[in-house]
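User
Here is a favour to ask of a fellow structure person. I am asking you to supply a protein in sequence and structure-token form. Please set it down just below, with no commentary around it:

Assistant
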Amino acid sequence: SGFPFVSGESVIGAITIALENNLIEGIEGELLIDTAAGLFRAAPRTSGAHVVGVAVTGVPSFVHSAGVPVKIGTRKITVDIAFGGEFYAIADSEAIGIPIDMAHAAALVRMGREIKDAVESTIHVQHPLDETLKDIHGTVFTGAPHAQVDLRSATVLDGAVLRRSPGATGTAALMAVLDAMGLLLEDHQFTHEGIVGTTLQGRVRGRQETGGI
């Protein structure tokens, strides 16, 4: 899927390997992870010699553009563009008409690529001087949740890769959209399910204003 600025799943995996194989020792509290997107913080939770969880705090997430109309063939759809460490186009799978399951993987990949290309073209026309959106990292298709989760999604990354995980940066971007809509309750643990059933949990750690955002 190209060279992502940061991968939350990779941070979790790298820290797990490093701690369980004693590559780093004496860690208490948070570890600081330098990434191309900025500083990430990770707090591992251990049980004996094993890492049983890692809480990752990323860079500030935000909604860049809400309800952006894009043309896909003869159809017009709307997407939200948000940042969670990478930029994502977020679309409603029901409005597009593609279910979120592995049986429709090829259709999701094809539509994800078309939406990414359409969003980049649309933003270039509307904001020709905005260099931040010259490369959308992926398309997140959202769908109705099953029991025990708040939202399901499937993410198609740059390079036409269907992500198995819900995705840490994608989860952060999605949470930014939900928070802007007033749908993310204060201190609520948001549970996000990916296409193969694995989940990530997220919380809002704080809010700040930068440059009017």
User: Anything to note?
Assistant: Residues 72 and 102 are 22 Å apart (CA to CA). The helical segments are 8-20, 93-96, 105-126, 168-180. The longest helix spans residues 105-126. The first strand starts at residue 31 and ends at 35.
